[in-house]
Design a protein that fits this description.
Layout lengths: L5 E6 L2 E7 L11 E8 L3 E4 L4 E2 L1 E7 L7 E5 L3 E6 L7 E2 L8 E9 L4
Parallel strand pairs: 3-10
Antiparallel strand pairs: 1-2, 1-6, 3-6, 4-5, 4-7, 7-9, 8-10
């Protein structure tokens, strides 16, 4: 089963192609969905070792995404994803629809 078709990463205004998996050439192409992870002010998103502004994945229907982590900048803390998920690390399981979420960060205020 194919897990990941394409992985793109965005750093500033530049979009980078990161990975491609084409699986078995004899396999019938299934429907795919796009998972988009965006970093809000005060942080980045990470799939491997690079901290990025945005990560875009294309996965086959029913497959799992990859682990994505929201990483806060110094002086900030991760609060939640825009869809209400409160853990900084996430991995979509059994993908059945497109998804766009933004990591939300809050500035740490010292009193």
């Amino acid at each position: 089963m194919k897990k990941l078709l394409l992985l793109f990463a965005m750093l500033g205004a530049s979009l980078f192609f990161v990975a491609c998996s084409n699986g078995n050439d004899n396999e019938t192409q299934s429907e795919y969905f796009v998972l988009r992870y965006i970093a809000g002010n005060g942080g980045s998103v990470q799939s491997t070792s690079s901290l990025l502004d945005q990560i875009i994945l294309q996965v086959n229907q029913g497959d799992d995404g990859i682990q994505i982590t929201a990483v806060a900048n110094s002086g900030w803390r991760f609060t939640s994803w825009s869809d209400g998920v409160t853990t900084a690390i996430r991995n979509e399981i059994n993908v059945q629809a497109d998804l766009t979420v933004t990591a939300q960060f809050t500035m740490i205020v010292l009193s």
